[in-house]
Amino acid sequence: MSEFAAGYAETLSKTTGHIACITDKDTVIAVSGGSKKEFLEQDVSSELEQLMEDKEIYNSKDNSDIAMPITRNGNQDRKNNAQIVYPIISNGDTIGTVILMSKEANKKMNEVEQKVVQSAATFLGTQMDI
Fold first, then answer.
1. pLDDT band at residue 77, thresholds of 50, 70 and 90?
2. From 3.30.70.1520, 3.40.50.720, 3.40.50.850, 3.30.450.40, which CATH number describes the 2-129 domain?
3. How far apart are CA 116 and CA 15, in angstroms?
4. Residue 98's closest CA among 4, 20, 11, 37?
5. CA-to-CA separations, 65 to 5, 50, 69, 82, in angstroms, rounded
6. Where residue 66 falls among pLDDT bands split at 50, 70, 90?
7. Structure confidence at residue 47 (pLDDT)
8. Residue 129 pLDDT
9. Cα gap 71→41, rounded to integer Å
């Protein structure tokens, strides 16, 4: 999945102007538009693990504008950044997530950005079904 993920993260970031991260169940496998050092190959947070287990979508707009920590040693300064997290599901199992985060503190994500993240997660999930 890493090959697809790197290319897709770059496309997501360039299209939206936001930071794009793609994870598998354990680590961040692709980052574009933001600090690779901060995210790439870092273990995912327990909150993100729980979201994957529950197959839930997370939108900071629906959660008091508070972003979910992405990595275990995540920088908590991102609390006010807009964020959308969508699970990647393959054969009924969550195999990772697609995450879009704003670079600016008071930026809001809209429905178009949520659909873009959903499309990315669906595409990556179907690639793993093959």
1. low
2. 3.30.450.40
3. 9
4. 20
5. 26, 19, 13, 7
6. confident
7. 93
8. 67
9. 9
Distance, in Å, from the CA atom of 79 to the CA atom of 93, rounded to the nearest integer, reads 29
Q: What 8-state DSSP symbol labels residue 25?
A: S
Please report the beta strands in the chain, taking only residues with DSSP state E, as ranges in sequence order.
19-24, 28-32, 58-59, 83-90, 93-101
Residue spans of the domains in the chain: they are 2-129
Q: How far apart are CA 97 and CA 33, in angstroms?
A: 17
Q: Quote the CA–CA distance of 45 and 38 in Å, as a whole number.
A: 13
pLDDT in tens, 98-109: 999 998 877 888
Residue with the two structure tokens 């008091």: 64
- Please name every residue paired with 32 in a beta bridge, in sequence order, or none if there are none: 20
